[in-house]
Amino acid sequence: MSDLSRQTPREDKKNRAWWAGSKRWIRYWSLRLMRQNSSPKNLAAACALGMFIGAMPIMPFQSVVVIALAFFMRVNKLAAWLATCYSNAVTMVPFYYFLFLVGSAFMPFDNIVFDPNHLEMTQLIASGWKVFAVMFIGGLAFGIPATIATYFIALFVIRRYRERRTIRLLRNKSRR
Fold first, then answer.
1. How far apart are CA 47 and CA 155, in angstroms?
2. 4-13 as b/e, with b when 16 or more CB fall inside 10 Å?
3. What is the spatial distance between Cα 172 and Cα 112, in angstroms, rounded to a whole number?
4. C-alpha distances in angstroms, 58 versus 38, 52, 103, 133?
5. DSSP alpha helices (H): ranges in the chain?
6. Residue 110 DSSP symbol
7. What's the farthest any 2 CA atoms get from each other in the chain?
8. CA angle 72, 74, 75 (to 5 degrees)
9. What's the pTM value of the predicted model, to 2 decimals?
10. pLDDT at residue 126 above 90?
11. Contacting residues for 80 by C-beta, under 8 A, at least 6 apart
12. What is the dihedral of CA 118, 121, 127, 131, to 10 degrees?
């Protein structure tokens, strides 16, 4: 390995600190989600709603839409919002490109091109409804199966976590 490709100790320490902070953040929010005072079905439905809204190419409005729908559907607002976090400003370009590719398979329009420099909502609409429509269809094609899978996976994980936590608490209580 050449000397140029090696990281300096300071860069290596910075990368480890970033990774440790990310793991801590993920653990904090996952525990906060699991310990919400909602039924497992309610939390799983909220996660599924967040997954679906996160798949739509409406980046600046996702939080508002998911919270409004969570109120309307009477599901956990925090869980719904957290589930949209997979599509964010950092992942926007590759995710929107993925939606464009999936949508292009379902709606093969001629002369439409994915331009990563014009991904704001107003720019997408101004570049033509075809580009937005292709990405929207891609979001539906990805979002519907992902929503169904998210519901059942989240329901299983939440029930299992709560069951194990209850057993652990009962064991600790009986040892006292």
1. 9
2. eeeeeeeeee
3. 62
4. 28, 11, 15, 12
5. 9-34, 40-54, 62-73, 77-83, 92-106, 121-126, 129-175
6. S
7. 72
8. 120
9. 0.79
10. no
11. 46, 47, 49, 50, 53, 66, 67, 69, 70
12. 100
Looking at residue 103, its amino acid is G
Q: What are phi and psi of 111, to 5 degrees?
A: 60, 35
- Percent residues over pLDDT 90 in the chain: 40
* DSSP per-residue letters across 64-87: HHHHHHHHHHT--HHHHHHHGGGS
Q: What is the spatial distance between Cα 100 and Cα 172, in angstroms, rounded to a whole number?
A: 52
Look up residue 15 and give its two tokens.
């990368």
- Could you give the CA distance from residue 72 to residue 63 in angstroms, rounded to a whole number? 14
CB 48 within 8 A of CB 66: no
Nearest to 153 by CA among 81, 48, 2: 48
Contact present, 55 and 80 (Cβ < 8 Å): no
d(CA 173, CA 165): 12
Tokens in use for 2? 């050449």
Give tens-digit pLDDT for 24-70: 877 787 777 777 888 999 999 999 999 999 999 887 789 999 999 99
Tell me the two tokens of residue 127. Answer: 């570049």
128 and 98 Cβ atoms separated by less than 8 Å: no
